[in-house]
Amino acid sequence: MTFETILLDKQEGVGLITLNRPDALNALNSKLLEELGEALLALDADADIGAIVVTGSEKAFAAGADIKEMSGLSFADVLKKDMFAEINSVFARVRKPVIAAVSGYALGGGCEIAMACDFIIAAESAKFGQPEIKLGVIPGIGGSQRLTRLVGKSKAMDMMLTGRMMDSAEAERSGLVSRVLPTEDMLDGAMEVASSIADLSAPSVALAKEATNRALETTLAEGLLFERRAFHSLFATEDQKEGMSAFIEKRQPQFKNC
Ligand code: HXC
Questions:
Q1: pLDDT tens, residue order, the chain (258 aa)
Q2: CATH topology for the 202-249 domain
């Protein structure tokens, strides 16, 4: 596959997608969003891949949706193309874990793409924000919904109504990111985390992702039932036998993803 606006690489069971519009701080134009969606679906379907990392450059994960591309559009234009619906639906379809590895600016749509991933590993240099309010719009790729679920109403309102940026320490304190690493080590660290997930049993990884996402969509009783049934179903896998035997025999498990 060849792309204009992203780079795609595979290393030790991990698919690495690098947003690559350096002249525009990786601003998300329609080509980039289309290519990001294609790459995510291709890696999700690739039997050699167990986890996916999405990253940008050291200066910017992405500085938002492409303001120059959007500026002249009318209400009818954006409604007709249902702007940004497709990338959200791609993220909803991807069943493998997706980690956002964020260095520098993750603003507007950049912050939203990071939050659409399953979790965020940030460099100390990372800066998150939803500055759309300063452009006369609001978030459109899920910011008002995902940021509020991640950091709570008070901080989400603060971020969305002022458009201010949050540094990596505040982002970790607030629950927006799962870990912060030194900037120069961040991508290697995120790749190591992804590779360690790719080494696990794929059916249990997929069900852990589904069960965790279910917590955001349903009641506690329904979520507990979903989790229990998913847990029960994993006793039908060879990997459950292997994982538990390996523990008892004090050796590393050899998972076969079945
Ligand atoms: C298009 C962008 C861009 C963007 C930066 N660039 N962000 N182009 N869309 N979102 C371009 C600049 O125009 C410039 O190109 C080049 O990238 C470098 O940017 P500079 O501004 O010169 O860099 P710097 O001074 O370091 O400032 C970095 C920055 C600033 C603080 C991140 O670029 C910035 O504020 N960007 C916009 C952030 C933003 O508002 N994001 C939200 C977008 S709306 P040239 O050719 O001039 O050199 C959004 C909506 C989502 O995401 C969905 C709802 C509608």
A1: 899 999 999 999 999 999 999 999 999 999 999 999 999 999 999 999 999 999 999 999 999 999 999 999 999 999 999 999 999 999 999 999 999 999 999 999 999 999 999 999 999 999 999 999 999 999 999 999 999 999 999 999 999 999 999 999 999 999 999 999 999 999 999 999 999 999 999 999 999 999 999 999 999 999 999 999 999 999 999 999 999 999 999 999 999 999
A2: Lyase 2-enoyl-coa Hydratase; Chain  A, domain 2 (1.10.12)
143 is catalytic: no
CA 47/CA 72 separation, integer angstroms: 42
Q: Is 132 a catalytic residue?
A: yes
Cα(191) to centroid(ligand 1), Å: 27
Rg over alpha carbons for the chain, rounded to the nearest Å, is 19
Which CATH number does 6-199 carry? 3.90.226.10
Q: Is 49 in the pocket of ligand 1 (CB under 6 A)?
A: no
- In 98-229, beta strands by DSSP E: 98-102, 105-107, 119-123, 127-129, 165-167, 179-181
Q: Is the CB of 105 under 6 A from ligand 1?
A: yes
Quote the ligand 1 centre to 114 CA distance (angstroms).
17
Q: Is this structure's pTM higher than 0.90?
A: yes
- The residue to mutate among 19, 67, 86, 130, having the most atoms of ligand 1 within 8 angstroms of its beta carbon, is 67
